[in-house]
Amino acid sequence: MTGGTLIDGTGRPPIKDSIVVMQGDYILAAGKKGKIEIPKGAEVYDVSGMTVVPGFIDSHCHFFWMGISMIREVQLRDTPTLDAAMTRLGERAKSTKKGEWILGRGWDESKWPENRYPTKEDLDAVSKAHPIMIVRICGHMVILNSAALKIAGVTGKTPQPEGGHVDMGEDCEPTGILRDCRHLVEPYIPPVTEETAVEGLKKASEHALTLGCTSIGDAGLGAEALKAYQTALARGHLKTRAYLFLNETVQRQSYEMGIRTGFGNDMIKIGPTKLLMDGSLGARTAALFEPYTDEPSTKGLLMMPPEALDEKAKAGHRHGNQLAIHAIGDYAIECVINSIQAALRAKPRKDHRHRIEHCEILTAGQIERIKELGIIPAVQPNFVGEWAGPGSMYEQRLGEDRNRLNNPYRILIDEGVTVAFGSDGMPFNPIYGVWSAVNHGIKDARITLVEAVRCYTLNGAYASFEEDIKGSVETGKLADVAVIDRDLTETAPEDIRDAKVYMTIVGGNILYHKGL
Questions:
Q1: Which residues contact 468 (CB under 8 A, 6 or more apart)?
Q2: Whether residues 82 and 113 fall in one domain
Q3: Can you give the pLDDT at residue 514?
Q4: Which residues of the chain have pLDDT under 70?
Q5: The pLDDT value given to residue 515
Q6: Are residues 167 and 114 in the same domain?
Q7: Residue at 68 is within a domain
Q8: How far apart are CA 362 and CA 154, in angstroms?
Q9: Which residues touch 56 (CB under 8 Å, ≥6 apart)?
Q10: What is the pLDDT of residue 394?
Q11: Whole-prediction pTM value?
Q12: CA angle at 229 for the pair 223 and 230, rounded to the nearest 5°
């Protein structure tokens, strides 16, 4: 591969007019043209005017469920209004037998002029003959229509679940809004078949390759998902490397079996113990020290008492697992740092690489503790692209002053903290994430293009203990490479999101080529 501008993922300056030589699964050489010899008989690809980067690593997404959603759910992410979302659901209702479930995903009220959550009345207007559930883009809120509420047995007498909330109206009956308590309805939804799951992984892999993504971290999986991953790999459907986070049910089983973080191979590897401490800012369930600016009656929710998190974190750490704990609000983050610190005091371990997933609203003291403890913030820069800046959803939830503490990438990197980027599927698109970090809505938090690429590549590999085999375009690393259709170093920062992937290579094999 010759002629492209190489951003190798290490943080070093870009190399213009580069050469990357691959042989088999690995990178043989990479550097400046004229200093690298092209082997005789090599197949040469001229990518002049383009950018060569390591294959992107999405350190936190929901790959398994993304694929399933592509097959069976109504996609609501791009709906411009509440009415448009309801219309799309209505179209599905016309082709769905009465009594069968209609599932939708991805709505975001902050993008609608109505700027409110849907309710059961909105969904009842779509159909009363079908149970309907729609999942907010963050995954921490669902809306049910009256038929779904009835099937799930959710009424005005339903006790409030621990770590969640069923919204009640003035009539003391459910509004249809469930915050972080989807488990009340999930048992009544038809389960995903293995064939659907495997087909979903195939679709998700194909989609990832079009975006230059060669590795993913799938956050929070059960036994059926683990089986589907193995089947998809055996059938040749899984093309992206997967680092699999274990949900709490599988964690207990893995502890009994002695399976730890790192078990597996270059394609599928067991990742961390996944725990959940709070919800999301969008659902107003992220746990904050101070009340929400636009809903002063709440500070969000903790999914469990801090002492329960302490015990679960100690158990995972004691077993030898990496920890990956979801925390968005500053109060939840404080609880997680305390739990990780307690686990390390109980059983010291140097190279633990415990992670805080999302890690959005940070105080200066928390950043210092994260650095001292060697914690990895696994963050999602695309959140910034979607919801940061003046008048944004973040500012509505947090207020102007507190919003300035939101996703402080510049400070974290300057403090020497290893920051790993992912998407959480909102949206799943590494180039959009790079654009978001470079154009952060808070100017003091912006980072450079080279830094953003590193966070989405080598730092992602570090977050899964794989920096020795992937994450950078260097001799001896796996030949996982993406080629972007323009020279990003010559592209205006605000135009980076318009770039497209031209080619994606996994293990030396071209698995995506634009136009082919």
A1: none
A2: yes
A3: 92
A4: none
A5: 73
A6: yes
A7: no
A8: 36
A9: 211, 212, 213, 214, 215, 430, 456, 457, 460, 482
A10: 95
A11: 0.95
A12: 95
